[in-house]
Structures are given as structure tokens and as C-alpha cells.
Amino acid sequence: MESNNQSTNINKFISSTGVCSRRKAEEFITAGRVTINGEVAVLGNRVFENDVVLLDGKPLKAKPKELYIALNKPIGVVCSTNPRERNNIIDFINHPERLFPIGRLDKPSEGLIFLTNNGDIVNKILRAGNNHEKVYVVSVDKPITEDFVRRMSNGIPILGTVTKKCKVEKLSDKTFKIVLVQGLNRQIRRMCSYLGYEVTKLKRTRIMNVTLGKLKVGQWRDLTSEELKGINALIKDSSKTEEASIKPSFQKKGSKKKPSKKRRKPRRG
């Protein structure tokens, strides 16, 4: 016989699917709109793992547990979910749950990258306008000068725009640390190339409040509750829309931009 420890209260179960609040779920139950395994549910019923719960004859399924993983990506692994890519990051991790990477690291780069099954958090972390820091340690092919540090810090013209001002610190003759809030395609490599330098090694060591720490190349771990608490605090006021990114707009001369109509999404429950 299954115990209550292996079950969930019916109103909590309904709420966990995202269709409504617990209070609204109670209204559905008392109205006789909910069934468990074909029987009309009542308040206080509990739902076990293989039970079939219907609301107005339609099945309800609990949301999967949210997963957040930190991987120290090796060189050669591609941040793609495409199974046709032989070295894709999903096959490399071989996690039992379906995950996808938050952002990317180039194939020849290594270091910290997040993976998750929660799509809502992705853009909040990635949008440049949200100013979430990412730290890289970079090695180049020739000695780093004061002029290189100054120009990298103040912005470099690449990809039809100028990179945001950033923090650059010389660590050794041919190695520097850079703190970015952007994620343009091959940004650091393009910035270095503009100044006549070639990147020989690139490693991401921190994303927001999470660092690589002692995580070895090729290993992954779940983010800790403290790390998730810190991330949620940092993204609390972040936008997850395109408005957070500054993108150049190209309009024909004399044309007027039509104001966009925004629709408010109705609140659930």
C-alpha cells in the first residue's frame, strides 16, 4: 500500500500543473469538475504517481522538476541541441532529463556554461541590457600592451556595432581577464582580432554569481540552492524580451515607425 509520503494533495497537484492557484483548484474540486482515475474528486484526496487526473475531462500533468546544471565545457564540444552535430553538448552530458544550454561557448573555447529545462530563465540571463556579468581568462599570441587594455575596455567596432565598455585586467605577458555583459558572436575573438591579436586560449570562469571553482574540465554539477537564490535575486528585475538588448534599427528615409500594440496577458487563477 502506498503511503501519503508518496502522494500529493489534490489541490496542490492541480496548482503544480500551472493551470490555476490552489484556491481556484479547490473551487474546481467542489464543483465536481475534477476526477481521479474516473472517480469524482473531493477535497482532501491525494494523487499518487500513476493516477490519472482530469479537469473537465482533460488530463493534467505535473510540471517537471526544474533543473539547473553547471558544466565545465571542454574544447571541441558544440553548444547545440542538434543530434546531427556529432559533438553536441546534450550527448556529451548524457543527462536523463531533457536540457538545453543557456547561451553558448565557441567550439574552441572552454569553461562554465549553464544548462536547464526552464525556458523562462534563459533570456533573463542572456540579454545584454540586463547587465549580467560573465568573466573570461584569455591568452593571446603576443605581448599585451597598455593600449590593448585601454582599447578593449572602451569598446571595439565589430558586427556593425561597438561593444559595450568592459573591465579588462592584464594577468601576465600574454594573458588577460575580461568581464562582459554582452554575448555577441565570437565577441572576444573578434575584439582581439580587430587589434591584431589572435586568441590562443579562452576560458569562461564565472557567470553572474557562479564560478567554476574546482569543477574539472568535462564535469558538471547541479547548481546549489545558494547559487540559485543569488541568480534569482540578480534576475528579479530583468527583462526577458528583446527590449533588453540594444539593437541598431535600419529604417528607410522618411518612413515612420508604427507603434506596437502590447497586449496584457490575463492573470491565471
Structural class: alpha+beta
How many separate helices?
A: 7
What gross morphology would you assign? elongated
CATH fold category name of the largest domain: Pseudouridine synthase
Listing every helix as H and every strand as E from the N terminus to the C terminus, the arrangement reads EHHEEEEEEHEEHEHEEEEHEEEH
Instruction: Tell me, rounded to a whole number, the average pLDDT.
Output: 86
The CATH architecture of the largest domain would be 2-Layer Sandwich
> Which stretches are low in confidence, meaning pLDDT under 50 for 5 or more residues running?
241-269
Give helix % range. Answer: 10-25%
Largest sheet features: 9 strands, mixed
Give me the Rg, rounded: 24 Å
Strand content is: 15-25%
Give the CATH H-level superfamily of the largest domain: Pseudouridine synthase
For the terminal residues, how far apart are their CA atoms? 34 Å
Q: Find the count of extended strands (DSSP E, 2+ residues).
A: 17
**Count of the domains:** 2
CATH class of the largest domain: Alpha Beta
